[in-house]
Write a structure and sequence with these properties.
The protein is an alpha+beta fold. The chain has helices at residues 40-44, 55-59, 79-83, 123-127, 162-166, 201-205, 220-223, 249-253, 281-285, 318-322, 343-350; strands at 6-10, 14-20, 25-31, 50-52, 68-70, 89-93, 96-97, 106-107, 110-113, 133-138, 150-152, 172-176, 186-191, 211-213, 234-239, 259-262, 265-271, 291-292, 307-308, 328-335, 337-338. It is elongated, with a radius of gyration of 25 Å. This is 4Fe-4S ferredoxin iron-sulfur binding domain protein. InterPro entries: 4Fe4S_Fe-S-bd (IPR017896), 4Fe4S_Fe_S_CS (IPR017900), MvhB-like (IPR043256), Polyferredoxin (IPR053559), Polyferredoxin-like_ET (IPR052977). Pfam families: Fer4, Fer4_7.
């Protein structure tokens, strides 16, 4: 039996591994632009054909190099492509991606949107770290809305910004959230009573019944309750699933519970705070933007060690690869697998548990 030669093509941003047989041609494609250097492909590879580069130095621009390399020891099994959370790896069999094979083994992750429940508030778009979500909405013309003391119930308010969009006097402002431990894009909402005309537009626009407006000078016709404006908003939320990394930030901030995200892994990201020197390499590489430095005010104080928003971390391990002093580790307690029937595949996926 004649062995089929495995060939390699490498450019500034891609690597192709090719095995062209008489009946089957397999091509493994890797794209540096999509790759974050998490190392999952390296950990799962049964032939140890994948090696990682100096990830921290690459992200900081110290060196100009690829995040990883693949040798011709690759057997083109596709385990790396099935496990990659960022779609940086793709295996083609006779010109068709294994993503098109419903029964091909993979690590499962998903995002589900209930378009009917969505209130088109744009919070998901604002917090998405990969620009995978875009909200298209068509607002009724403000000029056609009715004119008219204002109270906002902070317990009911979801900071969806719809009231601010409609305010004809631009009197409502949402305050950006600068708390790194919170995923929500806004921390407060304020009304400029100097410019507010108490027209009740915000009250009618609010989908959460959080605003009450009393207009003492308005004619009686204005005081009569009209249909809620938010019900007249038309549009849709569009999700690019190829860009989505399943961090669940969108699900966490959604005021309407319209999004459900299924993560590929369960577990915890662990940081040795005593050893961390706050170099920032992990923060630079994190694809979910969940690593941060807690603020401190004391001049000359030792930099605070890096911290993580656990609920939005996908446990990919890019920070582990980037850390130059090994103070970060990933503990994956469960791998969300689908269509994994062979013991070889199952044992390879189980290796991702740490």
């Amino acid at each position: 039996m004649v062995a089929i030669e495995v060939m390699k093509e490498k450019s500034d941003s891609t690597i192709k591994i090719i095995r062209d047989g008489a009946k089957e041609k397999r091509v493994l494609n890797w794209n540096d632009k999509s790759c974050v250097g998490c190392g999952i492909c390296k950990d799962i590879c049964p032939t140890e054909a994948i090696s990682m580069g100096a990830l921290g130095a690459v992200y900081k621009g110290v060196v100009s190099d690829l995040k990883l390399d693949i040798s011709t020891d690759c057997v083109l099994c596709g385990m790396c492509a099935s496990a990659c959370p960022f779609n940086a790896m793709e295996l083609e069999i006779n010109g068709t991606s294994t993503k098109e094979y419903p029964q091909y083994p993979k690590i499962k992750r998903s995002i589900t949107l209930n378009q009917d429940a969505c209130v088109l508030c744009e919070q998901c778009e604002l917090v998405c770290p990969q620009d995978a979500i875009h909200v298209e909405r068509e607002l009724p013309n403000r000029e056609t809305l009715v004119l008219g003391e204002i109270t906002i119930n902070k317990d009911k308010c979801k900071y969806c910004s719809i009231c601010a969009e409609y305010c004809p006097a631009d009197s409502i402002t949402l305050i950006p959230n600068d708390d790194p431990t919170s995923i929500k894009p806004f921390s407060d909402i304020v009304v400029d009573t100097e410019t507010c005309v108490y027209c009740k537009v915000c009250e009618k626009a609010c989908p959460h019944d959080a605003i009450e407006v009393i207009c003492y000078k308005c004619p009686l016709a204005v005081r009569i309750k009209t249909p809620e404006i938010y019900k007249e908003i038309k549009g849709q939320t569009i999700i690019d699933e190829d860009k989505c990394v399943s961090c669940s930030k969108c699900e966490i901030v959604c005021p309407a519970d319209a999004l459900v995200v299924e993560k590929p892994f369960e577990g915890e990201l662990c940081i040795d705070a005593e050893k961390c020197n706050a170099c920032g390499a992990c923060v630079a590489v994190c694809p979910c933007q969940v690593l941060y430095f807690p603020p401190h005010t004391d001049v000359g104080q030792r930099p605070e060690p890096v911290a993580v928003v656990q609920e939005a971390c996908i446990l990919c391990g890019a920070c582990v690869q980037a850390c130059p002093i090994d103070v970060i580790s990933v503990k994956r307690t469960n791998i969300n697998m689908e269509n994994v029937q062979s013991l070889a595949w199952q044992s390879s996926f189980e290796r991702l548990k740490k």
